[in-house]
Design brief:
CATH architecture of the largest domain: Alpha-Beta Barrel
Number of domains: 3
Bound molecules: alpha-D-galactopyranose, zinc ion
Oligomer: single chain
Shape: globular
CATH class of the largest domain: Alpha Beta
Number of strands: 25
Distance between the termini: 17 Å
CATH topology of the largest domain: TIM Barrel
Helix content: 25-40%
């Protein structure tokens, strides 16, 4: 069974853009040029209405949707579908002035004034009512339009509100979580230190910047609550649309962001039908190589795709040229748009979409790149790049709906991330949980192995190898699941900072890693050393030496084999990489952080143990695969600086239509897509 992002096949890859015609309603010349140019650029989708509340409802209760329907009709007549956003990303001025409670309160307790966007209080029933009303009207009017292919809820949810309404809801959340027992909460938050005990739930405040900030449990529960509140809020919008829309089958998404910290995305996406996200890699920066930016981009696609890993995702926004919000806004070098976009497809996306179609003359994003820039013509480098990509995507259209099948996985958990950060100690500079997961993921790529990025709640049976970097916060259920995975033949790697705390950030007693993990890995971790960037240490593993950085745990063996030992310092010769046979599988423990280039050596060993098929790829080549019903689509990207010959290839080159048998030379910045049985 193929599963499609949209729930059904549209037999094409979507090539689309955020389209904000509400800026040009008095310019029929521009509106008709837009359609002409969209067709020329191979644009087959436009995302409308992302911030159109003031255009729909300029004063309270007065609605104007005519312009929207006219534009949707015109797009549809020209073969361009619509993804329609609900307008709750920004509020009209009348609302804030009449109902100030809809405006967010910041971490110092100050209420915002009207302006900007996204800064609402999601607990406010007034705001929820207003949203429900506008969404209902919109869904009734546009929800049955034949051009509508998806709903886009609001825009890039994020941030927190510290108002009294949110505070009260937080208390309610805690009452449930701690069974209405304040002593249970005091115990789990360890409030016995610094006189932090609460007498009643009504004593509790959110972690204001200038307030209670010293309780780990409070800070993590606040983030959990905020995530739950977003999920609750998004239901309001989804329910309103589903109820009012004449067509109930139009799937729903919301646009997510890169490794976004504030919200546990797994909580947020429960009710949406497919994942979409906005990707803006900082290409050509001054601190990393192009290939590192590309790998990071592939990891980010994977993390977000795996939020619903049985189906493709959409790239809801990307910059056709440059952005306006980075410190330095570089132009995308020639060819980069094409390679980045095809990497996105290779990573499981069924769409490439842009922010935005046409540059704004004014407003906050007037100097953000767009498909059509201020010159207003199709005769620009960026426009030609976009049109060229349109041709490529149409050649790859049958890839739509194909899926990924990975046998390795890296665990990534939001509450673990928060817990690592809110716990003091270690080093302020180098915890970098997300980057660490990225680096482990990346270390499999030279072997042509893509890993899924999963939650501890996902099914482990789908995998042969699981890497669990820095799983600091761990629940007893997860410990049992990991044991079961290894017992049944899985290969597991855990690292330094595993199993220090329970789900409320309380340290495990009896030494780390907590409880059953000592039995699984056959080691006990006694101390952790924090390394300055200038400190040097290494790991002797077989005939190699691996460089160590940032963290080094001192571990004692219980019943594991030693795979590597430290080369320096007072812990020279002590074990640092260990392995224990456990049931039919093996549990590896890596007690120190390894430099990226050396991590590949350990990953090679793990892959060999796991029996996952590896490919010999020349350096500089990034490989991805997608699976159709009875065929495989393989992508080879040259992300290095030299031309590279890739051999033992077989299949049809989808861009040239020619058969490939054996080797192909791929120039830097280029790629091939092969289809085979
Ligand atoms: C985000 C937003 C868009 C726009 C772009 C600019 O992704 O969703 O509205 O601001 O950034 O890069
Ligand atoms: Zn609030």
């Amino acid at each position: 069974m193929r599963s499609y992002a949209l729930g059904h096949s549209i037999n094409k890859l979507v090539h689309g853009c955020d389209y904000n015609p509400d800026q040009w309603l008095d310019r029929p010349d521009i509106l008709s040029k837009d359609i002409e140019y969209m067709k020329e650029a191979g644009i087959n989708e436009a995302t409308l209405g992302v911030f159109s509340w003031a255009a729909y409802e300029p004063v309270e209760g007065e609605y104007h949707f005519e312009w929207l329907i006219e534009i949707m009709d015109r797009l549809y007549e020209n073969g361009i579908s619509t993804i329609l956003a609900t307008p709750s990303g920004a509020r009209p001025v009348w609302m804030d002035h009449k109902y100030p409670e809809v405006m967010r309160v910041d971490g110092m307790g100050h209420r915002n004034r009207h302006g900007f966007r996204h800064n609402h209080c999601l607990s406010s029933e007034v705001f929820r009512d207003k949203v429900r009303t506008i969404d209902t009207k919109l869904a009734k009017i546009a929800g049955g339009h034949p051009g509508l292919i998806a709903w886009h809820i609001s825009n890039e949810f994020g941030g927190e509100c510290f108002c009294d309404l949110c505070k009260e809801k937080f208390r309610e959340y805690l009452r449930k979580r701690y069974h209405n027992d304040i002593n249970e909460l005091n115990h789990e938050w360890w409030s016995y230190f610094w006189s932090a005990q609460y007498n009643d739930f009504s004593d509790i405040e959110p972690p204001y910047i200038n307030g209670q900030n010293a309780l780990m449990g409070l800070k993590i529960d606040w983030r959990r609550f905020t995530s739950a509140n977003y999920a609750d809020y998004i239901s309001v919008e989804i329910d309103a649309i589903r109820e009012a829309s004449p067509n109930k089958d139009v799937p729903v998404t919301t646009n997510l962001m890169q490794r976004f910290y504030d919200i546990d995305y797994r909580e947020l996406v429960k009710k949406i039908d497919f994942i979409s996200w906005d990707s803006y890699p900082a290409f050509h920066n001054d601190h990393e190589r192009y290939e590192d930016t590309m790998m990071e981009s592939a990891f980010d696609h994977t993390l977000l795709r795996c939020l619903k890993k049985d189906r493709p995702f959409f790239l809801m926004e990307s910059a056709p040229g440059h952005v306006n919000w980075m410190n330095y806004n570089k132009l995308k070098r020639p060819g980069v748009h094409e390679q980045f976009s095809c990497q996105t497809v290779a990573s499981g996306s069924d769409s490439i979409q842009y922010f935005q179609w046409r540059c704004s003359r004014g407003g906050a994003e007037q100097f953000h790149g767009a498909v059509v820039d201020h010159s207003g013509t199709d005769d620009t480098r960026v426009f030609r790049d976009v049109a060229h990509l349109g041709e490529i995507l149409s050649k790859l259209s049958e890839i739509e709906g194909s899926v990924k099948r990975n046998e390795a996985a890296v665990i990534f958990e939001w509450d673990n991330w928060w817990s690592i950060d809110v716990s003091g100690g270690f080093s302020r500079e180098t915890k970098k949980y997300d980057i660490t997961c990225l680096n482990h993921w990346k270390s499999l790529m030279p072997f042509g192995v893509e890993a899924d990025v999963i939650s501890v709640n996902d099914n482990f049976e789908d995998y042969k190898l699981i890497i669990a970097p820095m799983l600091f916060l761990i629940r007893p259920e997860t410990i049992e699941k990991l044991k079961g995975f290894v017992e049944n033949g899985g290969i597991l790697l855990a690292t330094y900072m595993t199993g220090y705390v329970n789900e409320n950030s309380l340290c495990y007693e009896g030494g780390f890693p907590g409880d059953g993990l000592k039995d699984l890995f056959g080691i006990i971790n006694e101390e952790i050393d924090t390394l300055y960037p200038s400190d040097k240490n290494g790991i002797r593993m077989e005939n190699e030496t691996l460089k160590v950085k940032d963290y080094a745990e001192l571990i004692k063996l219980i019943d594991a084999d030693v795979i590597g030992t430290y080369t320096d310092d007072f812990y020279k010769d002590m074990p640092v990489i260990t392995c224990k046979k456990y049931g039919k599988g093996k549990a590896y423990y890596q007690a120190a952080r390894i430099e990226n280039e050396d991590m590949v050596k350990l990953s090679g060993k793990l892959l060999a143990e796991s029996g996952i098929k590896i490919r010999e790829l020349p350096s500089g080549i990034e490989y991805h695969a997608r699976y159709g019903d009875d065929c495989i689509y393989e992508f080879y990207f040259n992300i290095g600086e030299e031309a590279v010959e890739v051999s033992r290839l077989n299949g049809i080159d989808m861009l040239t239509g020619k058969a490939v048998d054996d080797s192909v030379t791929i120039l830097p910045g280029k790629f091939i897509v092969l289809k085979s049985k």
